[in-house]
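Exercise (ungraded).
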Amino acid sequence: MSREEILGRMAAGARFAALAGDGDVTEGVRMHVVLARPDGIDVVDLQLPPGVDRYPALTPRIPAAFWYERKLHDLFGVVAQGHPRLDPLVLPHPDGNEPLPSPGAAFHPTHVEPDERALRSHVMGTGLFSLPHGPVRSGVFEAVEYVVETPGEDIPHVNVRPHFKHRGLEVRFEGMTPGRGVLLAERVEGIASVAHALAFCHAVEELAGAQVPLAAQLLRSLHAELERIANHLDVAMKLAEAAGLAVALARFGWHKERVLRLVSALCGNRFGRGVVVPGGVRALPLLGRDELKARVDTLRRDISGDAAALMQTASFLDRLRGTGPLDEDFTLQHGLLGPVGRAGGHEDDARWHRPYDAYPKLSRRPVTHRSDGDAMARLRVRWDEVTESFDLLAQIVELFGDHPDEVLSTRVEPVTGRAVGWAEAPQGEVLYLLEAGTDGRLRRCAPRSASFHNLAVFSSAFRGDILTDFPFVEASFGLSIAGVVM
Amino acid sequence: MTGALIGGLSLFGLALLGDLVLGVRHGWARPLPYLLGAAAAVALTVTGAAGLAGQPIRLNLDAFLGFGAADLAVDRLSALFLVISFGVAVPVSLACAAWAARPDRVRARGLGCAYALTCASVAIVITADHVFVFLFAWETLTLAFYLITAHRRGYTATPAIVTIALGKVSGAALLVGLLLLAAQSGSFSLPSFATLPHTGVRDTAYALLVLGFAVKVGLLPVHVWMPRGYRAAPGPLRAVMAGVAVNVGFYGLWRTLALLHQPPAWLAVVVLLLGGATALLGIAHATVQTDLAEVVAYSSVENAGLITVGYAVAMIGAATSIAPLVAIGLLAATLQTIAHALAKSLLFTATAGIEDATGTTELDHLRGIGHRLRCSGTGLAIGALTLAGLPLTAGFVSEWFLLEALMQQFRLGALGYTLPLAVTGALVALTAGFAAVAFVRIVGLTVLGPRGPHDAELTRDTGPLGKFGIGLLGAGCLAVAAVAPLQVRIIAAGLDSVVPGGVTSSALKAPWVVQPVFADFSSLSPSWLAVVLPALLAGAGLLCLLFARGRMFAVRRVPAWRSATGGVAGENQYTPFAFTNPTRKVLANVLLTRAELRTVERRSGGRDDDPRADAGGAHLGYTSDVVEAVERFLYRPMRRPLRIAVRTAKRLQNGRLDAYVGYLLIAFVAVLALVLVLT
Amino acid sequence: MPWIFRGLRNGVLTTGYPRRPDTDDVRSIARPAERATWEPGLDELCPTGAIREEHGRVRLDQGRCIGCGACVTARPGTFSWQEGNDVAQLSRAALVVPELAETDADLRQLRRALSRRTKALRRSVHIRHVDAGSDGAEEWEILALTNPVYDVHRLGIFFTASPRHADLLLVTGAGSHGMAAPLARTLEAMPRPVVVIAAGTDAVSGGLVSPSYATADGIGDLLPVDVWVPGSPPSPFRLLSAILLATGRLTAAGRER
C-alpha cells in the first residue's frame, strides 16, 4: 500500500489515528498507519527498503502526523523529509549511528540516554525569551518541560519537551505473554489503567476470537466509567485550584477520593488495576450490589450539586471563557480526541461509534453538540460525560443484578497475528496495535494514548492567552505525560 | 554679594571664550569650560544663599543696555531657584568635566560654549527684572539647547529641530504675553505687572505665560521635544538640560503666580488636568521604553506633570483666595522640583557614565550593570529610587506632600474644583504606582539583574571627578530627605513673595515633624524615618549575626532554581523589554501599543538536509511598539499643512534685492496705515 | 459566598490517623505467611521476580511487588495481602518479608540516626516532589494527601514549589535517564539536612518497568534514599506513614509520638 492509498482513504472520511514504527533501519522500518473509520479501525503499512532511513514526510498533507513523525525519528532514526520541524520529542539524540531503541527489531540497546544537546530553542525577535517551566514544576506534577516563548505576558508559542520520563515501554512489552502484558498496559498511563487494560485485552481477544462473558463486560464498563468520573473530577480540581477556589478544590478532592475508595472497595486497588484480564475480569466485586448502588447514588447527588455550583461561579467561568481556544476546523483536521475533541466539534467516541464490552447493551441520552473549543467547552463536555457515566453506572448495576453467577472469563488461547484494540479512556481513544509471534508472546506492542495525540496541539491553544491562563489551558486538556512518552 | 553674581556670570563668560579660543585640540583645555562653570555655579549658589538670607543683590544694567531701568535683581524667589539650579550644577559640571577629559568624547568646539551659554542664560532668566532682558536670556537658552542637541554628528537632525521649534513657540508665547502685560502697565519692568487689574487681556497674558513656560518644563501637549531632545544631547550634558536648565521653566511659573497672583479659574483647572495627564503619559512611556536615556527623559515628562499638579493646586488656592492651599501646593511642587533636579541630574550623570563605559543605552544590553560599574550603577539606583518616591529619599517627602495637597480638595465647595482635583489625585496615585514598576525595572534588572547573553562590552567607569559628582548628587538625594524640615523652612522663605512665609511655615508641626500646612490633617517625620529605618535594618542584621552564631557566612552556594531545567539556548530570563510587556498591554489605550507576531516559516524540510545552521532556531518573530498619542494625533496631522506653509513662505525669500526692498516698503506703508487708523 | 456554606455542609471528613488507627484496606502489596515453606514454581508466579527462596522459607521482596495479586490468587494459603499502613522501611533490605530478627537491630540504629538528622524538621516538614518516570498514578496519590480526607496540613506537612524551601524529597518513578540530571539538580538545590523518600514500587526497584533501556532500576541508583515505600502506587495512608517515619514522628508501634 502507498501514501496515496492513505490519502485516498482519508479523503473518503477516514481519520488519521496513529503512526507506529516497527523494526530497524538495517532491515527496513515498517510504518503502520492506523486509520479510524466511523465504525472501525484499519491499519495501512508502509515499508521502507532495508538500509533506507528517510521517506517523504506525511505531515505536510496530514497535520496530525506532526508528532508521530518526530517520535518515529527519535525511536528509529528515520527522517521525514519535508517535515516542518523534526525536533526531538520522546528521546532526543544527535544524528549519528548510535544504537536506537527501534521497537520491534531483533536487538535493542540496553542503555539509551536522552541527549539534551539535540534540543532546540526557537526564539527570535525583540525582547522574546524562553521561560523554562519544568521538568520539576511547582506543585505535584508529572515531569514535563514547557518552554514558554514569550515577550512577557503573551504566549506566542509553547515548546513541549516531554522526553524526561520516557520509560521505553514499547520495547519492554516485547516477549511478554498477554497475561503479563496487560499488567504493563495498566502502567502505561496510570490514571487510565482500566482503559489501557481494556484496549490491550480487546486486541488480544480479537486475535483469539474470544467472547467475553456478559458479567465481565459489565464489570469492565463499571470500572471504566468510575475511572472516567475520577479523571474528570481531577480536571475540575485542577481548574478550581488554578482559579483559587479553595472550597471547590477541597470538595472535588473529597469526591475524587470517594470514587477511588469505591473502586478500591470493589476490587482492592484504587485504580482498578488487576481487574481486567485477557478474556474477561479477574474476580467478582468485593462489594454487594446494594451498597454499590447506594454509594454511587450518593456520589451522583453530591457531585452534580457541586458541579452546578461551580458552573455558576462567575469568577471561575470568566477565566475559562475563550481560554485556550481550538476552532472546529482545526479540531477536525487534527482529529482531536476525547473531551478536547468533543469540545471542538469532533464527536467521535469509541464507546458508541465502535462499541465494545457492555456498551452495545447500554443506552445514552442524546448528547449536546459543542464546538466552542475553549476551556469552558471542555469542562462542559466533562460534566456531560460525568452525568452520562452515572446513567451508565445505574444501568450496569441493574443489568448486573441478573447475572451474578456467570463465568467471569473465557480462556484466551495462545494467539498469533496482528490486531488493533481500542477503548475510550477519560482522555480520549486509546489504541493498542498488537502483534504476537508464533509462541504466543508479544512481538510488538504499540500503545497510543489520547494524551499523545492531543498534547501535540497544546502549543496551538494559546491564541490571545497570557501567562496566567497557562494552568487553565493545561488543566483543561486533562492529559497524562506518562501516556505521552511511555 | 553682588560680586558673587558678577563673578559667576563672568566665569561663564570666560568658559565660553575659553572654548571658542582653545577648542578641543589640547587635552587639558577640553574640561576647562566645565571646571570654570563649576566654579561659577558655586558662586551663584552662594549668591542664592545670600539672597535667601535677605541680602539685597542688585546689578544695574543701565550702562550696557539702552532701554531704561534694567537690573539683575535677586529677590527671595530668584534666590531659591538660584540655589536649586546651581546647587545641582556644581556636581553636574564636575561630571561633565570628567567626561570631556576622556579622549574622543568632545570632537568639536561649541559644546563648551553651549554649556556656558545655557548656564549663563539660566542665571539671567532667574535674576532678570526687565521684560527684554528676560526674553533675551530666554531666546539664548533656546539657542543653547539647539546647539547641545545638534552637537552629535551623524545623529539625526530631527530632535534638534523639534527642540528649537518648540523653543520658538515658547519664546513667542512669552513675548506676546509679556508685551500684553507691558501694554497694560505701561512699563517693561516685571514687578510693575503685580498691580494690574483683572481684565480679559491680563487673563490671556496669564495663559500665554503658562504656555510659554510649560514648553520648557515639558507639559502635555508641548512636551514632544523633551524625550528626543534629551536623548540626542551628548553624555552628561543631558543633566545640564534636564537637571539644571529645566528649573527656569518652573521659576517662570512661580514668578507668574507671584506677579499676577489670581489666575482665571478655567486656567487653573486646565493646568491641573494637563498636569495629571502629563504625569500618567510620561510614566507610561518611561515604563515601556527600551532605551535608558529615553526612560529617564520620559520620567522628566512625568515629573513635569507632578510638579505642575502641585502648582495647579496653588493656582486654585490663589483663585479661591485660600492662602494655605497656595502654600501647600507650591511647597509640594517646590519639594518635587528639588527632588527632581537632584535625581534627574544623578540619573543622567550615571547614564552618561554607563554609556561612556559600554557604548550603549539599550536596556536589554545593560543587565546587572551595577555589579560591574559600581559607581554609576549605585547612582542610577539612588536616582531611580528617589523618583519612585521610596522612603529615605527626597522623592518620598515630595510625593507625600503632593498627595496630601490633592487630598485637601474637600476644603473647596465648588464641584468645578473638587472633581478635577479628585480625578488628578487618582491620576497621580496611578502614576506613583507605575513609577514603581518603571524604576523596579531599572533597579531590579539594569542595576542588580543577572547578566544576559547580549551584554555590552565594558571599558571603565567614570573618572574620579565624575564619581565625586555622582557621590554628591546621591548624597543630596538622601540628605535632603533627612533634613526635610530645614528644607521646608528655606522654601518658606523663598516663597515669601507668593504666599506669606508664616503660612508656609505652618507645614512644620514640630521642629522635626511636617504636616500639609493645614493643621490636624496628618503628619510625617522624614528625619525620624532616616534614623529609625537604617537602625532597624542594622538591628535585624545584628540579631541574625547573634543567633546564627557565626554560621551566617558559612553558606553553600547553589545555582538559582530554574525548575531543574537543562537550560534553553539564548535569552532565557525576563528581559527589561519583557518585564514591561504587561504594562504595554494594560496601558494599551494610553500607549497605543501595536504588537505583531509572525511565524517565520522554514523553507526547506527535514533537518538533515537543511543547509542553514540551526535552522530550527528561526521560528518566531515578535515586534511590539508604542506610539506617542499626542504626536500621532496632534502633530502629525499638522505636518502637511506646515510643510505647505513653509514652501509658500520660502517663495517669498527668493534672494532678489528688489523683492526685499518691496517687502520693506509694503510693511512700512502698512504700519503707517495702522497708526493712522488707530489714531 | 455559596461555597462557604457548601464547605460546611458535610462537617469534618478528615481521618484521625495517625493519632487513631485508620486504613482503607487497599490490596496492593502481597506478603507470604510467616512460616511458609518453599515449593518449586512459586517464583514463576511473580511477574517482577519478587518471590524467592531463602533457607527453605518463602521470602517476598515487597520492594518489587506491584500488587497484581497473581500469587495471592494462585496460593491463598502461602500468600496474603499486606495489612496496615506501615509498609515503609528505612532500608532496602528490610522490604524483604517476613522480617528477619537480625535486621531489627540495624533498623533501630538507622531509625536513631535518621531521627537525629531530622530533629529540626519534626513538626513542620516541607516536601518537594519529583517525578522520575512514574506512570502518573503516584502523583494522584500524593496529591490526595492534601484533600480534606487526609489533609496533611494539619500535621504541619506542606508541599513547596521550590526545593530551596524543602526538607524532604519525594521521588516517584523508576528513575528515567532523562530525569537523572534534573533530579540531581533538585537535590543540589535543597538545604541540608535532606531526607529522600522513594515512593512506589517503581521508585524502589523499577517494578514492572525495569529492565529498560530508558530507566534505572529504581532511584536508589541515582541518589541516596532514606525511606522506601512499596506499592504500585502506594496508597495515601502508606505515603503519609512513610513521611511520618522519615521525620521521626512514628514510633515503632505505628502511632505518632
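Further reading is listed at the end of the chapter. For now, observe: DSSP finds 26 helices and six strands in chain B. The two ends of chain B are 49 Å apart (CA to CA).
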